[in-house]
UniProtKB/TrEMBL annotation:
It comes from Anisodus acutangulus. It catalyses: peroxynitrite = nitrate. This is THAP4-like heme-binding domain-containing protein. SUPFAM superfamilies: Lipocalins (SSF50814). Pfam families: THAP4_heme-bd. Residues 17-163 form the THAP4-like heme-binding domain.
Length: 164
C-alpha cells in the first residue's frame, strides 16, 4: 500500500481507536476447543474488526466452522469501546443467546488486549469468561477461559489467525 494511502486511512481512524488499529481487518485461522465437560474439537475461524471513521468504537464479528465438515459451529458479534487511558469495554452477543459485558485493558506496544467478564447474561451454566488477545509478528492469537457452576476458570478455546 502506498504511504499516502496508509496516511489517509490513519487519519480516518478515530483517535481513541488508533492504538488498536492493527486489529482492524479480517483474520482467518484455526483453533482448538476443550473443557472438562465436553469432547475436544478443532475449528476454522474468521474474525472481523471494522471501524466507521469518527466513531470511537470497533465493530467485532466472529464465525467458526467445523474443521472437517465445514459446517457452521458458532458466531458472535459486538462492539469494542477503547478508552484513552488504556482501558476497554466490550459487549458480545453469542449465537447461543449468551451475552457478555467485559472490561479490560489494552497495551498495543506489547500487542495485548485482556478482557474479563463483568456480566454473563442469559447463561445457566457459564459464570465467568476471560479473553486474552495477542498480536505478534503479523499473527493474532487468543485464549478464552471459562468458569461454570461446576468448574473453576480454565482454558476453553485457543486460536491463531493471520490477517487477510
Amino acid at each position: 500500500m502506498a504511504a499516502s494511502t496508509v496516511n489517509q486511512l490513519e487519519k480516518m481512524v478515530h483517535p481513541v481507536v488508533q492504538p488498536l488499529s492493527d486489529l482492524l481487518g479480517t483474520w482467518r485461522g484455526e483453533g482448538h476447543g476443550f473443557f472438562p465437560t465436553i469432547s475436544s474439537f478443532n475449528y476454522s475461524e474468521e474474525l472481523q474488526f471494522s471501524h466507521s471513521p469518527n466513531k470511537p468504537v470497533i465493530a467485532y464479528s466472529q464465525k467458526t466452522w467445523n474443521l472437517k465438515s465445514g459446517q457452521p459451529m458458532h458466531s458472535e458479534s459486538g462492539y469494542w469501546r477503547p478508552k484513552p487511558d488504556g482501558t476497554i469495554e466490550v459487549v458480545i452477543s453469542q449465537s447461543t443467546g449468551l451475552v457478555e459485558v467485559q472490561k479490560g485493558t489494552y497495551d498495543m506496544k506489547e500487542g495485548v488486549v485482556k478482557l474479563k467478564s463483568e456480566l454473563v447474561g442469559n447463561a445457566s451454566k457459564v459464570k465467568e469468561i476471560t479473553r486474552v488477545f495477542k498480536v505478534e509478528n503479523g499473527e493474532l492469537s487468543y485464549v478464552v477461559e471459562m468458569a461454570t457452576g461446576l468448574t473453576s476458570l480454565q482454558p476453553h478455546l485457543r486460536a491463531s489467525l493471520k490477517k487477510l
